[in-house]
Each structure stands twice: as structure tokens, then as C-alpha cells.
Design a protein that fits this description.
- Two copies of one chain form a homodimer.
- In chain A, about 40% of the residues lie in helices and about 15% in strands.
- By secondary structure, the first copy, chain A, is of the alpha/beta class.
- Chain A has two domains: about 5-30 and about 280-375, Aspartate Aminotransferase, domain 1, CATH 3.90.1150.10; about 40-275, 3-Layer(aba) Sandwich (Aspartate Aminotransferase, domain 2), CATH 3.40.640.10.
- In chain A, the strands form three sheets. In chain A, strands 2-8-7-6-5-3-4 form a seven-stranded mixed sheet, with helices on both faces.
- Chains A and B meet through helix 2, helix 4, helix 5, helix 8 and helix 9 of A and helix 2, helix 4, helix 5, helix 8 and helix 9 of B.
Chain lengths: ~375, ~375
């Protein structure tokens, strides 16, 4: 057996999810509860009737690759050759790390709190990695200076995620510019930024978030239709980057998966035919977020600003400042609400709890009330 | 960049395919030209309308896993926990190598001629590997003794493919039993067999081929709906093995891809609801094979026995005994027929040419006639 697998810790999220009982309120779930538009599926089924279901090229259908490139419109990376169509953004992250990093030499710097698949993928591939934490005392505010200070002589890639899971923070253009300037000022081989933008369409400010891909040419951007269009089960994502890196990523993709599902790609081409549909669910989330904030304020909960995605980090009372797992267990055991301990997103998440607020309205309101009850009862 | 990618040669198949002109006869294609049954797609689209499209569990829907296990019915490996649903059989091969092999210690032995993704996957993962060739003089007859003789002290896995691409040979039960007996007689840690059975349903003998999975408990079996059901673009396959290895493979699968497309899995569950549909295309191929053999005999072509899959290895005239690429180039250039040089399947394929006979009937007949013409003209 491959010993690299022994070093990969089982998922805390999965362990606590497994303890959920029927009737429990689920604020742990990381996927939309909205139903997707079925029309692209009707169109894709009609397509199969006409064309069968052959493979596409390894990197994906050329039309879809061009659609994705045009949608992101990064300078100098706006052509089909800049896109590899992947099995969700998860495979895009894997391909970027596998293709662009030399495990014998390079180090990866991961911005946390974060989805722990980033360090686990590094562990799987034997890639040296370090974490750099945003400041919990500052509500996990995205901070380029912290990232730049943490760079080491062997750092060849920074992994960041904006809008962020679990913090709900969005990297503002000013901080992304500061990051790009800082990287540009470094001598030697440029440091890449792998930017996970799977929540790209779910923002609550006036302006759509800017991507580091637009500001730093050595960026690799991962995206998907999973969250924007409630299509997690479509497993359709993409990696965008310079043509040389995309060609290398496609070589890996070809050997590991051949290509993404042709059916999923036809569905995606239908969606991209009207890119506005990628933003169709945003008003729903904006409304839900406003309700959530109302209930949290009403109950006096302390939480990090919710700027994007569908998560919220709630600060735990002192009793659980070093035991978010204990808080989540108490919440589940005594109040029948499932939430995710902050420690599941790295050490900097300790003392916090992540709420996913995709749940149905009444469940969400009741869940917040029960969390407030738990916190009141805590010494 | 990852230097492992530099060591992976570009595909010869891809290079020659890229030279095909409109109007050329294509006997190079590795996928069915039949149309798939569209009814499972209608059913799956109705399912999406009702359920949306959430993720399945990482290893796949429990019902589908149980269906696949029951279909293969290997002793002691017949439960859902013995199956990981994958992105086609390609990912199943990757997962088996990645999870079951320790790159620092283990060696893999690959039976050729074969699909060169096997050694390329080993190169990608830094796994030591050697090839063991079946005898071209014996029509590439599957030969357990050759494999057993080639085992080394560090060999921990044998990769074989039956029915075979490119040879069309099927490992008979007697040779598989000889292989299993030979492996059982070896002291020390058992050697696994990774068996690629993606052409399982396409056989032309009386009896369905026996799987090594039924004879050797340390087998890992890769399969898919790609070839049997003309669903290459569905990207739906599976890996079957002992529960511990499948759990390790699922850990890799989760990090690399999360899960297979839920839509593809619903289509697959529809197909497995009546497993006879997996064999529905066999009569078509049997008829096509009979025609092909008639035409080849008529033209006096020398070829390896076609026992399964939809390929045929044709022996080249002396002039090209060491230059199958030259023969394929001459065939394409002067006779406008695309076929695959045997060297694309390992050194033992040199001096042969692989025909894929999924082409339309008239194209296939004309293609054979032109190959005979090329051979006649050769000195």
C-alpha cells in the first residue's frame, strides 16, 4: 500500500456528519439545497439521442473551453488553450498541484482557515507545504502582508480561496493588488497563485469579486458549476492558466481520468450559452444571508463578516476557545444541531464554528436559536 | 513544473490520428461507433427534475456499488464495500496503482502488448515497472508461464488486460488458473493482479471470459460501461477489490475527483437494473468480426486470433518488421487509411499494425482492400 495515505488524517467534517440523527438540524452541509434548472439536462439528453456519447478531447470540448475562458476573460489567458475542463474544481486543484509543482524542490503556502483538501492533496503528492493563517481577532480579514511575510525561499505556489470557505470573507481588490505587487517585487522564479474560486458567483457586495487571475499572470484559477448552479453532482469544473501549464495539467488529466463526462460538458455548454444563469441563485442567497444576520444579531452571536459563499464563522464562548470539536459535539448531542468545528479548517479556526446556511428557512432560524441557547448555558 | 511529466512520451496514437484528413478511412478509433440506448438518459433527467443533482458518497451510490459487485460476483468481494465507482476504467487503473503500490519499494510488471497508459501511469507516480511480452510468433497468446518467469523480488503487482487491446486475445481460464497457482506458490507478500476488463462483454467464444478476480483473491478489477454500452463519454467505471484496498482507493478518489458524476451514476443504475443490456451490442460485434475475418482471409492477411474486444493485430510484411510507424504512415499517406502502428503498444507490437474494426461496414471492407494493396506493393 502507498504509505502517503497513512499520513492523511480522516475528515473531521465526515466524522461529525456521521453522527447526525434523523430530525437533527443540518448546518454542516457544504452544498446548495436549491434545485438546478432541469432544462440543460433536457437539451443534453436530446443531444445524446442525436450524437451518441463519444469522448471529448482530453482537455474538454473546444467550445466549452472557449466559453469558460471568455467568461473569466483574464488578460492573455482568454483562449480555449488556457482551459482544461475537469471533474469539478477538486480535480482542478489536484491538476494544478500535480503539474506545476516539483515535489523534490518546491514548497506550497496555503492560506487558512481553509478547506483541508489543499494540504491533504499536498500530502498525497509528497509536496512540502506550510499554512499561513489570517487573523481570527480580525475576523479572518484577507491580508496580503501576512501571506507575503510567510513566503520562504522554496515557495513556488500560494493557495488561496475567495470567496472563502469557511470564513465567508472575500479578498478585496486592494489586498489582491498588494499580493500581486509583492510577488512581482520578488526576485527569481515567479511564485504562482492557485486561486480556488468555486464560490465566485456568491458575493454580497455591490461588485463582483476581482480575481487574482486578472492581476497576476502566474495565477491558476479553479472553478466549477457546483455551487453557482446547484450542480455539485455534475462534477464539472475547470482550471485556467497559461497554455504551457494547462498542457501539462491536461497530460495528468488524460492519464488519470481521460476526460470529463461528455454529458456534463453538454449541460455546461447550455449553461454558458447564457452566462447570466451562473448568477441566477445569488438573490436567493442574499436574502437568506440577510435573514441569518438578523437572527444572529438578535441572539447576540459574534461572527465574521459574511461577504461571500454560504458559510459563516461564529465565535465560540471562552469555554470552547480551544475545543471547537467539543462545542460541535455538545450542540449536536444536546441541541440536535449539526455544525462544523472550526478546527476542521486548520488551527486558526479553533475557537470558532462554521455554519452552512443553505438549510431551509425555519430550520436555519431554529438552529440559530439553539446555538444561542448552547452558548448561554455555557459557563 | 513536475519533472515526472517530462518522462512521459507523447502518444503515438494521438500523433498519427492528428494527421488524418477528411475522407480518410478510420481504422484507428478506440471507441464504439454504435449509438447508446437513450432511455437511461430520459430516466436520469426525470430523476434530476425530482431530486436535483447532489453529490453521491465519494465511493459512489451504495445501490450502484452493490449492483456492480453483484454483476461481477467475485468470491468474498461481492458487497458494495468492494466497489469504488470511478471516472471510467482509466481512473480505476490510476487508483489501483496509486493506492496499492508503495513507490519507494514496489515494482509493477505489465503484460504487453498493451494500452500504454499502464506504464505512463507508473511513470507519473514514480513507480518502477517492467514489461513482459507475450510472444508475437505465437499470435500474442496469453501465457502465464512467461508472466511468472518475469516476476522479480520486488514485484507487487501484475497488470493484465483481457479481452486485450490491441491483440484481441482473451486469457483462457486455464492460463488464468496457471497464473493464480503460480502466484499462490510464491512465498512472501502476495502479488496483486490488476486486471483491466473494460472489454469484458465483447467476446466471441461460446463462454464469457473468466476473470482472474474469480480465481485470485488479491485481484483488483477495473471495468466500465464505455465499450459494452457505447458510453465512452459517460466516464463511468469501477474498481473492485478487497475492502481495505477499496477504502484506500476511495481516499485518493475523494481528494482527486470527489466522486463520479451523479447523473452518470443514475444512468448506470438504470443500465444495471437489467444487466443483459451490457451484452446487447455483442451480436453486432460478432457479425462485424465474421465479415472482417472473411475479407482478411480473402486478401491473405496474416493476423492474430480475434477472441474479444474490437481490435485485430495484422502482421506486417518483412519490409516493416521493424518499422510499424513507417507502415502506418505509408498506409495513411498513399492509401488514406488510418491504422495504429503496433509499436504504440510496446516493443513486442513492432512489426504489426492494429486495426480497430468499429468502422462502418463499407469503410471496413475498403480499408482491408487498401491494406492488402499496400502490402502487395511492398518489396
Amino acid at each position: 500500500m502507498n504509505p502517503a495515505l497513512d499520513g492523511i488524517a480522516p475528515s473531521i467534517i465526515r466524522a461529525i456528519n456521521a453522527r447526525k440523527r434523523p430530525g437533527d438540524i443540518d448546518l454542516g452541509l457544504g452544498e446548495p439545497t436549491l434545485r438546478p434548472d432541469p432544462r440543460p439536462f433536457d437539451a443534453a439528453t436530446a443531444w445524446v439521442r442525436e450524437h451518441g456519447l463519444p469522448y471529448t478531447a482530453n482537455a474538454g470540448d473546444a467550445k466549452l473551453r472557449a466559453q469558460v475562458a471568455a467568461y473569466h476573460a483574464f488578460p492573455d489567458r482568454g483562449a480555449a488553450e488556457n482551459v482544461c475542463v475537469t471533474i469539478g474544481s477538486e480535480e482542478a486543484l489536484y491538476l494544478a498541484l500535480k503539474a506545476a509543482i516539483d515535489p523534490a524542490r518546491d514548497e506550497v503556502l496555503i492560506v487558512e482557515p481553509c478547506y483541508l483538501a489543499y494540504p491533504k492533496l499536498c500530502a498525497l503528492e509528497g509536496i512540502r507545504h506550510r499554512m499561513v493563517a489570517m487573523d481570527p481577532a480580525d475576523g479572518f480579514r484577507p491580508d496580503a502582508a501576512r501571506v507575503l511575510e510567510a513566503l520562504g525561499p522554496d515557495t513556488r505556489m500560494i493557495v488561496l480561496n475567495s470567496p472563502n470557505n469557511p470564513t465567508g470573507r472575500v479578498w478585496p481588490e486592494s489586498e489582491l493588488r498588494a499580493l500581486a505587487y509583492g510577488l512581482a517585487a520578488r526576485p527569481g522564479e515567479p511564485v504562482r497563485v492557485l486561486s480556488d474560486e468555486v464560490y465566485r458567483e456568491l458575493y454580497f457586495g455591490e461588485q463582483a469579486p476581482v480575481s487574482i487571475g486578472a492581476l497576476w499572470p502566474h495565477s491558476l484559477v479553479a472553478g466549477s458549476l457546483s455551487k453557482s448552479n446547484a450542480l455539485t453532482g455534475l462534477r464539472l469544473g475547470w482550471l485556467i492558466g497559461d497554455a504551457k501549464t494547462i498542457a501539462a495539467a491536461t497530460k495528468v488529466h488524460q492519464l488519470v481520468n481521460t476526460a470529463a463526462s461528455t454529458f456534463s460538458q453538454v449541460v455546461a455548454m447550455e449553461v454558458f450559452a447564457d452566462p447570466a444563469t451562473l448568477a441566477a441563485h445569488r438573490p436567493h442567497y442574499a436574502q437568506r444571508r440577510a435573514m441569518l444576520e438578523g437572527w444572529m444579531r438578535e441572539h447576540g452571536l459574534d461572527y465574521a463578516p459574511i461577504e461571500g459563499a454560504f458559510y459563516c464563522m461564529v465565535r465560540l464562548p471562552e469555554r470552547w476557545a480551544a475545543d471547537s470539536l467539543g462545542a460541535a459535539e455538545a450542540l449536536l448531542e444536546h441541541h440536535r444541531v449539526l455544525a462544523t468545528p472550526g478546527i476542521a479548517f486548520g488551527q486558526s479556526g479553533e475557537g470558532w464554528m462554521r455554519l452552512s446556511w443553505v438549510a431551509e428557512e425555519n430550520a436555519l432560524r431554529e438552529g440559530i436559536a439553539r446555538i444561542a441557547e448552547l452558548f448561554r448555558d455555557a459557563p
